[in-house]
Structures are given as C-alpha cells and as structure tokens.
Amino acid sequence: MTRPPTAAQRRVIDAADPVTGRLRGTEAQLAALVKHGLAFRHPRPPHDHFLTPAGHRIRDAEEAPAPAEPQAAASAGGGFAARVGGEEEAPPAGPARVREVHSAWQGLLELRRMTNRDGATDRPCDWERTHLVQAAALALEAAGHSPAGAGPEGYRVRATPQPEAVAVYEPAEEARRACAATLERAGWQVGEYAEPRTGRRYLLASPRRT
Q1: Residue 123: how many CA atoms within 13 Å on its side-chain side?
Q2: How many CB atoms lie within 10 A of CB 67?
Q3: d(Cα 161, Cα 47) in Å, to the nearest integer?
Q4: Domain residues of the chain, as ranges?
Q5: Other Cβ atoms within 10 Å of 8 Cβ, number
Q6: Per residue in 15-30, pLDDT tens?
Q7: What separation in angstroms does the CA of 175 have from each of 33, 44, 62, 199?
Q8: CB atoms within 10 A of CB 118
Q9: Angle 59-62-63 (CA atoms, 0-180°, nearest 5)?
C-alpha cells in the first residue's frame, strides 16, 4: 500500500459486511483495492470480493478509540459486538439477541470458508487472529455460555500480553471446563492455568493453525 485509499474506495471499505468483510462496489474500485492489498477476489463463484486483514485495519483505524477493558468487544465493523463479559451497558437478552448472535456466528463460519486456503470452517481465520477477544467471545456466546454481568458469575474474555492468546475467566469450575470444550470445538487451543499471586484459575486460548 503506497498511498491511502481514495474517498470512493474508503466508502466501499466502510460499507463492507461487518462480519464477513464482503465488499460491494464498482469493478474499478474493487480492482484498485485488490491492487493495494486491501481486498481479495474469491477464486470460487460468485467471485465476491472481501477485505484482507490490512483492509480491516484500515477500517478499524478510523473507528473511535477502544473503551476500557470491560467494554473491549468492539464489533468487526461497528455494528454487532459479542459480549466479552462485564460490560456496563450490555445488549438486552432475549430471542432477538439469540438470533443476532447466531447470524454473526454463521457469518464468521462463512468468512472462514471464504478466506482459509482450504475452505476449512473448523479453525479460525485471519480476521479472528486480529480480533482475538471478539472472536473468542463470539464462539462462547454463540454456544450459549453466559457472560459475566454485574456479579462474579459468567465468563470474561480479556486480552493478554502473549501473541495470539486471550484469557477466559470463569469462576465456576464446571462452566470453565465447558468454555474450554466450546473453544476447542471452535478451533482454539486451550490450556488452564492459575495466576501466581491470586491462584485464580483461567483459560488461555489461542487460534489453532492446523
């Protein structure tokens, strides 16, 4: 990328699907984004165009700064946001939220199919590796796990200093093991550890590559 996208190209990037990164624009606009490494054309019909990780970063860089850790689950594109646990203003629970989460998870599986070289949906894709907290939280919420609210119960997904790793805190042992099983089914490598000072148990999860 030698120069920033034009205003027209920027509008195409901003209008990409918030989960899959699917693009809509003129052939010239899409070809220019591909040339600059911000999009790619899928080799299989219908040959749609999608944002690359670099394209996602361009769009994310224009969004508002991330809030404090409990509200760190910014959405893939400013719309849907998976619950990481501990949010001060959580989306209301109910059938509408269940449908929204299901739709987001299905969109993520489609993104895996479109962007993993072998079309595999059983392991994370590049978008998930650049949005670790959101991706892990979506896998948990889509599987029906309960995020933490005002009380201590429920999961909390947090970033860690380690590359490509998130921490999942869940005080209940049985629920913690269930979270580990869910993440493993979703294509993550998971181990359980204890904090040296407090002894608090947590899961350390990383996206599986093979």
Answers
A1: 12
A2: 12
A3: 38
A4: 1-62, 68-207
A5: 12
A6: 888 767 889 888 888 9
A7: 44, 40, 37, 18
A8: 6
A9: 95
Beta strand ranges found along 67-165 (DSSP E): 156-159
- Amino acid letter, residue 18: P
pLDDT at 76 over 50: no
Look-up: residue for tokens 């093979």? 210
CA-nearest of 100, 133, 101, 130 to 115 is 130
The residue whose two tokens read 């392991």 is 123
Task: Supply the pLDDT for residue 62.
Answer: 54
Per CATH, domain 1-62 is 2.20.25: no
Closest CA to 187 of 126, 122, 138, 110: 122
Give the integer Cα–Cα distance in Å for 155 and 16: 30
pTM metric for this prediction:
0.66
Chain centroid to CA 208: 14
Buried b (16+ CB within 10 A) or exposed e, 190-199: beeeeeeeee
User: Closest by alpha carbon to 207, among 193, 191, 189?
Assistant: 189
Cα separation, 57 vs 107, in Å, equals 19
Q: Which residues of 130-144 are buried (b: 16+ CB within 10 A; e: fewer)?
A: ebbbbbbbbbbbbbe
Burial class (CB in 10 A: 0-12, 13-18, 19+), 26: exposed
